[in-house]
Amino acid sequence: MSDINETTNQTTDDSPLDERDLRRAGRLLRSAMPEAAFADGFADRTMARLAASRAAVPPTGLRVAAMQRSFRMLAAAAAIVIVALGVNNTLIARSDGTSLVEAAIGLQPVSAESVLSYTSETLQ
Amino acid sequence: MDAARPTGWAARLTVIETDDDAALVARAKRGDDDAFRRLVERHQAAVARTVCGMLGAGDDADDVGQEAFVRFHQALESFRGESSVRTYLVRIAMSCALNALRGQRRRELRFVRDDVALESAADPGTQQAGAEDGQALRIRDALDRLNAEHRAVVVLRLLEERSTKETADILQVPEGTVLSRLSRAIRQLRVTLGPVWAEVSE
Fold first, then answer.
1. pLDDT digit string, tens, across residues B123-158
2. How far apart are the C-alpha atoms of B202 and B198, rounded to whole Å?
3. Which of A64, B108, B123, B154 has the highest count of CB atoms within 10 angstroms of its CB?
4. How far is residue B191's CA from residue B20's CA, in Å, rounded to a whole number?
C-alpha cells in the first residue's frame, strides 16, 4: 500500500532509515500479529455503550425543568422576605404617624415644613 | 501519491463506499442508530488493527475500540468529511489508545504477559509447540517497550502499512517527525529483539 522507499534517507537528526530494516520490522510485526480483530458482538457492545453514554447525560427538557424548580424556590423565598420586611415596617414605623403605604415601603413621613424648607433652599 | 490511487472499477467502488459512508454519517447525525451501527460494522476492523497494535488484543483493546466509536458519535456534528470516515476513526482510535497507555494500565498487562512467557519457556512439553507463540510474544513485548509516540508510528507505518503522509495526518505531526520517530523505533526494536531480528532473512 505504501511506498517503503519514500522514507529512506530522509531523516535529519537520526541515522538514515534502512529499507531492509523497514521491511524486516514490518514482516516481524505482521507475523506476530497476523490478525487483529475484536471479539464477536463488538457492534452490539458498542451500541449498548452508546446508549449508556446517552443516558448519563440528562436531556435538555429535564435540565430546563430543574432550572424552573430552582427559579420557583428562589422566587418564593424572595416574596416571603419582601412580605416580612413590609410587615416589619408597617408595625414599627406606623407608630410615628406615617401612612400605611409609607410604612410598608419604608419611606419617612413628609411634612409641610420639610417641603417648604427644601423649596426655599432651592430657590435661594 | 497519485500513482497509488485506484483506477477503473476500484475507483468506482471507492466512490460508492465513500458515498455510502457520507450517507450513513448523514443519517447517523439525524439520530438513526441503524446507520451508525452499520458504520461500526464497516470500520471496526480498521479500528481493531490500530487499537490492538497499540495495546495488544484483549479486553482493554475492546474497551478502547468502543470508546473510539462513542467519541466518533459525539463528534458527528463536527465531522465535515474533509478526511475519510476511516481515517477520522483511526485518528480517534489512536488518540484513545494513547490516552489508555498514558493511564499506565499497560504496565499490569505487561507483567502478566512476561509471566505467561516464562511459564511457557519453563514447560518442556510446550516448548516445541509454543516456539512460534514465544517469538510472537517477544515481538509483541518489544513493541510494548517502545514509548507511546514511537509505537504509534510503528503501528501505522509498518503494521498497517500506511504512507508517511497518512501517518503524519493521523498523528497530526510533521512528516519529518514521523521519519525520525520511525528511525529511533526501529533502532530500539533491533536492539531489543537481538537474535530474533537477525533470524529474519531479507
1. 544 444 455 567 788 888 888 889 899 999 999 998
2. 10
3. B154
4. 46
Name the residue among A18, A28, A50 with its Cβ closest to that of B200: A28
| Placement of cell 400605611 in the chain | A100
Residue A69 in grid coordinates:
424548580
Q: How confident is the model at residue B168 (pLDDT cuts 50, 70, 90)?
A: very high
Give the DSSP letter of residue A109. P
Q: What is the pLDDT of residues B14-36, one digit of tens each?
A: 445 555 889 999 999 988 999 99
CA B158 vs CA A55, B97, B182: distances in Å: 40, 17, 9
Instruction: Decide if B97 contacts B64 (C-beta within 8 A).
Output: yes
Select from A97, A120, A121 the least CA-distant residue to A110: A97
Distance (Å, whole) CA B94 – CA B98: 6
Helices (H), B75-193: 85-102, 105-122, 124-127, 131-145, 148-154, 164-171, 175-193
Handedness of CA A68, A73, A78, A79 (dihedral sign): positive
Using pLDDT thresholds of 50, 70 and 90, give the confidence band for residue A96.
low
ipTM computed for the complex: 0.71
DSSP state of B146: S
B40 CB neighbours in chain A (<8 A) are 42-43, 46-47
Q: Do B40 and A42 touch (CB under 8 A)?
A: yes
Q: Domains of chain B by range and CATH? A: 7-109 (1.10.1740.10)
Compute the distance between CA of residue B48 and CA of residue A34 in angstroms, rounded to an integer: 12
Convert A81-99 to b/e letters by CB count within 10 Å (16 or more is b): eeeeeeeebbeebeeeebe
